Amino acid sequence: MGRIVVTEFVSLDGVVEDPGGAEDYKYGGWSFEFSRGEEGDKFKLDETLGAEALLLGRVTYEGFAKAWPFRDDEFANKFNSMPKYVVSSTLEDPEWNNSTVLKGDVAEQVSKLKQEQDGDIYVHGSSQLVQTLLENDLVDEFRLMVFPVVLGAGKRLFGATSDRKGLNLTESKTVGDGVAILIYEPAAKDGG
Fold first, then answer.
1. Helix, strand or coil, per DSSP, at residue 47
2. Band of pLDDT at residue 22, cut at 50, 70 and 90
3. Spatial CB neighbours of 153, under 8 Å, sequence gap ≥ 6
4. Of 15, 72, 109, 178, whose CB has the highest number of CB atoms within 10 Å?
5. H helix or E strand, kind and range, residue 58
6. Within 13 Å of residue 70, how many CA atoms lie on the same side as its CB?
7. Whole-Å CA distances, 129 to 21, 65, 155, 169
8. Cα separation of 130 and 139, whole Å?
9. In whole angstroms, what separates CA 144 from the centre of its chain?
10. Other CB atoms closer than 10 Å to residue 48's CB: what's the count?
């Protein structure tokens, strides 16, 4: 059975929009203003090499599909070779190799994917998808790399939910220029 692991670059005020600078966001590339240091870089590489598949929203998928096939390093080789699942109601023919479009009810499709796929299925970016996964209790782990900046505006990782969502902090450390790595798992549901 697969596990859904959400991994995000996030500002102190919860913004996840355009950390790499490939979109048209006024603060695009904000994550590159800080060094993650060797330990932070190793964390991201180990995370990528440990993934069995990617699950992405259409916008993030299209950004990745424009960038990764033309790179040649450990990250790119892993991203390009592993299975990729993109949640979209509009994408018909994904061109990035090993890509499958998931259509229909997102919670149902992702639940099915978790049953069929072994290992960790990583979600990068894809804020709308992450909010849907959180709402439907489908996230098994959050891996947040929190950068010491307040951006003040932009797409946020967490939006409104129909109920509170408890999380347990399972690991934390600071790397590089004060970048916090926080790993959370869902808390057990309250009895009742």
1. helix
2. confident
3. 15, 26
4. 15
5. helix 58-67
6. 5
7. 20, 17, 12, 22
8. 8
9. 9
10. 19
Give the pLDDT mean for 69-77: 90
> Which residue's entry shows tokens 């995370």?
47
Q: Quick one: CA dihedral 51, 106, 144, 76, positive or negative?
A: positive
Burial class (CB in 10 A: 0-12, 13-18, 19+), 1: exposed
Mean pLDDT of 104-115: 96
Name the amino acid, one letter, at 66.
Answer: K
Q: Which of 128, 139, 177 is nearest to 30 (CA)?
A: 177
User: Are the C-beta atoms of residues 86 and 102 closer than 8 Å to each other?
Assistant: yes
pLDDT digits (tens, 9 = 90+) for 30-44: 999 999 999 999 999
Dihedrals phi, psi of 119, to nearest 5 degrees: 85, -170
- CB distance 158 to 139 below 8 Å: no
How crowded is the C-beta side of 148, counted as CA atoms within 13 Å?
A: 10
pTM to 2 decimals?
A: 0.94
